[in-house]
Amino acid sequence: MQKSMMTPVSATHARAAVFSGAGVAFRLEDFVRPLPQRGEILVDITCSTICGSDMHTWHGRRTEPTPCVLGHEIVGRIAAFGEAAPRIDLKGQALHEGDRITWTIAASCGECFFCKRGLPQKCEHLFKYGHNAISPGKVFSGGFAECCILNPGTGILKLPDALSDSLAAPANCAVSTVAAALRLAENVEGTVVSIIGCGVLGLNAIAMARHAGAARIIACDLSAERCDLALRFGADDFAQPDELRGVLNEHTKGRGADVSLEFSGAAPAVSGAIAAARTGGVCVIAGTITPGCLVEMDANDLVRRMLTIRGLHNYAPQDLVTAVDFLTDTVDSVPYEDLAGGSYALEDIEAAFAASAKLPGRRVALIPG
Predict the structure, then answer these.
(1) How many whole angstroms separate alpha carbon 306 and alpha carbon 203?
(2) ∠ CA(147), CA(149), CA(154), 5° rounding?
(3) Which of 296, 327, 331, 343 is most enclosed, with most CB atoms within 10 A?
């Protein structure tokens, strides 16, 4: 793929890496720098990381409307407020120009059927960053650009100085999704937790479950190479799929896990997560983000084991607060640097995606400017 070369643009313009489809090189283009309209905030992006869903789109395993600006794990600084734009964040902290922030992956209306029932991520008027086609005047809605316009209904959170840009960027996707999964699992303190899939999501889930006081954490992944990393993030045991039942039996007298979390996305992993849960246990399925993951289940087993199975897609604004607080509390005790995949300039986005493809389970950062 050929890399675009451009000369620096003026302060009245900003660059964006335009995605036109799988197998087509990104185009680095300059556009008129937007002015925030009513309820909007203009942010100068300082860092974005390449998420697994970005990789699925790049490979063609999932489809987004094109042309578009991908990227939703974003950190930036407030450049300007539109009229009536929010001036406080999710914690009630005042917002000012220059503040370093992150924000929810989606903007919700707050008034529709789903918003009023605690599912803002399923808003009937949902707007997702990094998932919308470019339209006239609506270019900067993704992270792989020099700026981004925040829509009304976006949850905004100021970032503490303790978190670097590259560590904070995945908070508004991967780490918030994990926070939502543990919220759905309810209280994990004192429980046995099985975590299937030890990529970025699974490793953060291990660390978060440990931080929440889980009594024992059993990590599971097809790749034995992830064993050391899982243990470093706080797992007590590591098992490959065919070993998981035996490890669970050893530590639970044959009962199974109180909480079973799935972050793999493969059908066998989903089946394995359900099988790992004890009678009366809770299983949260969060890794399946592409169609076609068909799972067979005996309804008699579901009934007799009295299982609670919950699906999770994206997260609610309070989960972003939990994610950032968790990262702040554990920045010195969890080896997050092991998840870093390097940094690239925005004009090197092709090399960044190629590197990310070779580093599954890592986060590659793109730095504008």
Answers:
(1) 28
(2) 130
(3) 327
